[in-house]
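User: I'm writing a tutorial on reading structure tokens. Could you give me a worked example: one chain, its sequence, then its tokens, then a sentence or two explaining what the tokens reveal?
Assistant: Sure. Here is the example chain.
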Amino acid sequence: MSNIKLFEEKKVRSHWSVEKEVWYFSVIDVIQILTDSSIPKRYWSDLKKKLSMEGSEAYEKIVRLKMLADDGKKRETDTADTETLLRIIQSIPSPKAEPFKQWLAKVGYERMQEIANPEQSLDRARENWQKLGRSEKWIQQRMTGQETRNKLTDYWKDSGVEKKDEFALLTNIIHEEWTGLTVKKHKDLKGLKTQNLRDHMSEAELIFTALAELSTRQIAESEEAKGLNENAKASKKGGSVAKNARLELEGQTGKNVVTGENFLPPTKANLEIDSENK
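And here are its predicted structure tokens:
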């Protein structure tokens, strides 16, 4: 399980290891939060040398994992589990150290709760979206769409599609068929980099994405699709159902369903342009 956790509305890239049942957190993200450094990589480089010279166990327990970078690509970065991260934090003078320790404990406790009761994971997601200012209507559509997505990926797994790149390929086939854009081009249209595309979709985009994925699953089930090739054909058909519905709606309303709208905070440049236009 990969995720983005929020500490005081700042993002911390994280990864849940199913095998070890522990969270791994991006050390760079944590250092940036604790130090407010504009060059956290250099801070971490110096701290690693210090920990190494001291013979610290924390230095030996760093794990390199691929996580989304600012350019939207997955790159290897230093991560640490909770225990190791706590030792690293002890070496960083920061007034945020104690609140961050409490946050780490809370994240770990919440994950244990979610494993015991999966519904709590949905509650947590709803709470995060509320903090980000999403409407209840949008949140409900986002969660409904995620349930539709989960049922589709469950079918793919059961039908012999297992690799992550195969999941990504099938997802892109569906998406490009109904939107006319690849996932990457849709993200580019919205000005997104590392952000989750679905978290920046409009209500209409979420609905049509769900329709495309629901149609794909039902077509795949009716055709008893097995393996990548057969599911790819079903994906194209499912995407086509949503495409036809999109074109019909756009013809009736004169408005595009697929747009560049997003929920990104306004940039300084955009604020200045808006101010000049007033």
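What the tokens reveal: The CA atoms of residues 7 and 103 lie 7 Å apart. Residues 111-120, 268-278 have pLDDT under 50 and may be disordered.
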